[in-house]
Amino acid sequence: MKYMMFVCTDAEPDPDPENRPDIDVWVSENDASGRRLQGSALAPESAATTVRVRQGQLLLSDGPFAETQEVIVGFDLLECADLDEAIEVARAHPMAREGRLELRPFAELER
Hints:
Residues 1-106 form the YCII-related domain. This is YCII-related domain-containing protein. The structure is a single chain. With 111 residues, the chain is α+β, with helices and mostly antiparallel strands. It is built from 3 helices and 6 strands. A 4-stranded antiparallel sheet has the order 2-5-1-6. A two-stranded antiparallel sheet has the order 3-4. The longest helix has 11 residues, at 23-33. The two termini are 18 Å apart. The relative contact order is 0.36. The mean pLDDT is 90.
């Protein structure tokens, strides 16, 4: 099952500096196992453009539309057997301690 893992900042990171995982090790291990299909850091939110259409009008704004302390800073596309495996993969990611990770399965669309 495929999961999108959004990597986000958090206003309250874990204050415990012990045993911080290394992102390069996490990437290497999950790439080698086939659980991480793709991933990347994103440019800062100041480089974002929000696109909306209302009553046929294109509305563009710079940066994220909502003011928030939590910002998406990257993503990873995961292939896991189930949610439990995806949680274990996310648990080992460094941003699980310094930020937050949102796991979302891809929808099964009927065609």
